[in-house]
Input
Amino acid sequence: MRTAPRTAQLLVVLALFTATAGAVAGCGDESAGSATRPDNARARAVADAWDGSKAAEVWRQGYHPLGESVQLPRGAFRDGDDKRAYLTENLVLRGELPAGGGSEDGQVTWDSGGSLELPLMDVREAYDTLAGGGNDGPRLTVTGAKPGRMKLATSRGTATAPAWLFTIDGYDTPLRRVAVTPSKLPQPPIKPSPAVSDAELRPLDRLAEVADGGRSVTVYAHHGSCDDGPVVGTLETDGSVVLSASVAGTKDGPCTSDLRAKQVTVKLDRPVGDRILLDAFTGRPVPYGQTKGPSPSWS
Output
């Protein structure tokens, strides 16, 4: 369901793309931060709650994207106006959209094996997720759409999912939008952590990247202007990787109240594989950050 305060949200999105390198939401630092590896009691409790649980079983059987639900046309964007039009969702339809459900089926298939049948998103609904702007600024013109498929990262590895392929005037390849809704999140088997100091534990912002064959995990972690930045510890088990975010070097005295997000990269002893990436504070899987907000799994 689309939310009402779209203007404010879109301004934030623009800020993310136009801010200088090193800024997140206007005040963050995207350079890699330090990492520690404490085996704290909270991380252990989260791992014990999830490993072998019904929630973990449901999670592994579901479709939970960890990548963008939209893939841009090749060569996008031609200029700043096209980029602004996309970020402000200022699309205009100058053609016909297919009638009915359209896409051939709702099956998601994984490269590693296995598949899942999911409800399909109507082409009009998919278009509306892209075209909510309606302002007087630059526009992208959609001239048609057809069903297709696209690859994306998920919690179970790379998958191929049904997609709507929108033809954009001026581009040789289509804009692809995933045409299925993520599986419902399982009920976490553990409650969020009680309130503690930021130096002990705080919630993560979002997952940025899993790289180096699954051995490197980069997340955004929050901190303030009167500290030495965020640190992220890891606890690895056979079933999960629990990430514990905290803030180092907090200082007393006058301090601005701005909240910053900084990238922190941690190295794992072995690839993530099908293990669940968990936030020690929330007791939930770490959300993946997209250009326009959190992964659909967490919306």
Observations:
- Residues 146 and 275 are 36 Å apart (CA to CA).
